[in-house]
Design goal:
The protein is α+β, with helices and mostly antiparallel strands. The chain contains six helices and 13 strands. The chain has one domain. The relative contact order is 0.14.
Length: 365
């Protein structure tokens, strides 16, 4: 019987024989459908990776902005709080402890010009450790680019470091310095301190009446919020005007500080106790006070509540700030609210209470 080979030959005519192995081989390459499926799967995986990377990047930037905002707010609070704790420091001079024939340094009849650099005005302000301008009203002229509806704080004190001491700044020509006498002879003669920029004026002595009394740089710091860090950059910034030789120099401190609001703790007790009996956002108008009485309130300020509003330096895509922020109380006793701003910046409020150690101690019986 004859065997048919048609099936075997027809099934192998398109499968060439591998000459090296003797086995049948398949034609190489992929079909266009296989290639398209592979590309589609690759694109799907790539899109997922890109999405995950973008999400992680956005999250990382958000965390960085939040951390930066926290650092800025905490640092601003620390700067102001530390300065307030030293407000009214006058080295060995105690302006409230003199007896006849040396009366106390008198409270001025009207508040001094915070931007004045003359010795006479600085001397009249010596008894006022701090001074403020509620919402920037009647702001001193040495401040530039002041942000609307933000408080201004003036801190006055001597340096805690005597000229010539290790690590202290050297004496600078034209700067104002304080020298307090410890000599009984000078004290009885009515010459118990000198505040001046003239080097020849510092002739007072220590307790032995022989050793020249040390000099302390006299400082006036004016804290305020500016609209810009650098001109036109739109970054609100906490700045400080610092008393120098005949001029106030403005120094940027913390970017992103958008508002500063302060309430002042007044020691109105009789006799005084060294603790605040009441807080007010504006001692200049407390109980409708007359100028001399208003000035005395500043002299009896023994604490301060500090409220700071910060914002991110850059907006967050897709975010709208619809919140309302409360920064203490107004001079009328109502909640001091700001916003909503309806922009893309994230914000946060920081709060602290600072005790003014020097005037509080002087007011303590």
């Amino acid at each position: 019987m004859l065997l048919s080979t048609t099936d075997s030959t027809s099934s192998t005519r398109h499968r060439p024989l591998d000459v090296t192995t003797g086995a049948l081989s398949r034609s190489g390459g992929y079909t266009i459908i296989e290639v398209m499926v592979a590309i589609s799967l690759s694109l799907i995986i790539l899109a997922a990776l890109v999405s995950a990377f973008a999400g992680n990047s956005r999250q990382r930037h958000a965390i960085e902005r939040a951390n930066q905002q926290t650092e800025d707010g905490s640092y601003a609070l620390q700067l102001i709080s530390d300065d307030l704790r030293n407000a009214g420091y006058l080295a060995t001079l105690n302006p409230g402890a003199f007896s006849a024939p040396n009366p106390q340094i008198a409270i001025p009849a009207a508040l001094p010009n915070a931007c004045a650099t003359g010795v006479a005005t600085l001397t009249s302000a010596l008894i006022l450790p701090i001074q403020g301008y509620d919402n920037g009203a009647n702001a001193p002229v040495c401040l530039t680019d002041l942000r609307a509806n933000t408080d201004i704080l003036v801190v006055r004190r001597a340096s805690t470091c005597a000229v010539g001491s290790a690590g202290c700044d050297p004496q600078v020509a034209g700067d104002v310095y304080l020298q307090a006498s410890g000599c009984a002879t000078e004290f009885s003669a009515g010459t118990y301190y000198v505040l001046d920029s003239n080097v020849a004026s510092f002739t007072l002595h220590q307790k032995d009446c022989v050793t020249v009394a040390p000099l302390y740089q006299y400082r006036t710091h004016i804290y305020f919020v500016a609209n810009n860090d650098q001109p036109g950059d739109g970054i609100p910034t906490l700045k400080r005007a610092e008393l120098g030789p005949g001029v106030f120099n403005i120094v940027p401190l913390v970017e992103g500080v958008e508002n500063l609001q302060i309430e002042y703790g007044l020691d109105t007790s009789a006799p005084t106790t060294g603790t605040p009996a009441v807080y007010t956002a504006d001692p200049n108008s407390y109980l409708g006070c007359a100028p001399a009485t208003c000035a005395s309130y500043w002299g009896n300020t023994v604490a301060a509540k500090i409220n700071i509003l910060t914002r991110d330096l850059t907006p967050t895509q897709g975010y709208a700030d619809t919140k309302t922020y409360t920064l203490g109380l107004t001079a009328g006793g109502a909640a001091n609210t700001f916003g909503p701003f309806n922009d893309g910046f994230r914000r946060h409020v920081y709060y602290a209470v600072a005790r003014l150690n020097n005037p509080a101690s002087r007011n303590t019986p």
